[in-house]
Amino acid sequence: MTDENSPPVLHAEGLTKRYGNRVALSHCDLRIPRGRVIGLVGPNGAGKSTLLQLACGLITPTEGTLRVLGSRPAADAAHLARVGYVAQDTPVYASLTVADHLRMGAWLNPSWDRALAERRIAQVGLNRSQKAGGLSGGQRAQLALTVAAAKRPELLILDEPAAALDPLARDGFLHHLLEFVDELGASALLSSHLLGDVARVCDHLVVLAGGRVQLAGDVADLLSRHHRLTASRGELDRLPAGVEPVRRESAGGYDRIMVRTGTVPPALPGTVAPVGLEELVLAYLSRAAGDPTGPAPSLEVRR
Q1: CA dist., res. 29 & res. 47, Å (int)
Q2: Are strands 204-209 and 37-41 parallel, antiparallel or unpaired?
């Protein structure tokens, strides 16, 4: 059970990161409680990888503050041991064997769980003597995940680790990710542009676009606060107080609007329908792109 009084897994205030004249993140405020599997989604260039690299301490903010598990990222060796990181393309060392990776993990991490690592390697069928360069993409991903998890971190950070995998390998990777989270009692922060993957494994959502947080919260709460209204043209021009329009579409004499309400929504006009996670994300990305009636920036809805 998560201790609600413990520091959030990630807390950003005014977080900004610039690379020269390019702004990757701009004045982001974010507070994510522990015990969540967090989906970080957005189009290419949204700032997802920058946020994850900041969270790992690989880069430092230009402005603002960021705390991970209550401390500055990579503040010391003890804090580094509390975070496991799988970078894009699930990097492993091609010339090293699977067994070499486990030995290296044990040497680098004082809390290394040898039994967990050995058990997971056997479960996914990896040959200990096989060099990583000869593994398939799915096998490399499983090896990288095992090395990150066997240090027994409180937070697993994964930067699009399954994007290049085929559907079967992705399915296996996500299955084992959830098993690790459950076994370790850890939180996980997963960056992905595959909305189907996020819908499957994540219970908390952060939508980034244009270097800013567009939407954040527990998935169940976000879905309960959003509704799709459909009515004859003009009937939705005036909405009740406290109802925020997010995306509007018109076709064939009808208007359709996605709206956001409070925890107790007022009586809503027209035909009211629930909103799915994919529809929710695409609506906020469309709005961030400056066209709340048009197509969203490219994101893949892959099963």
Answers
A1: 14
A2: parallel
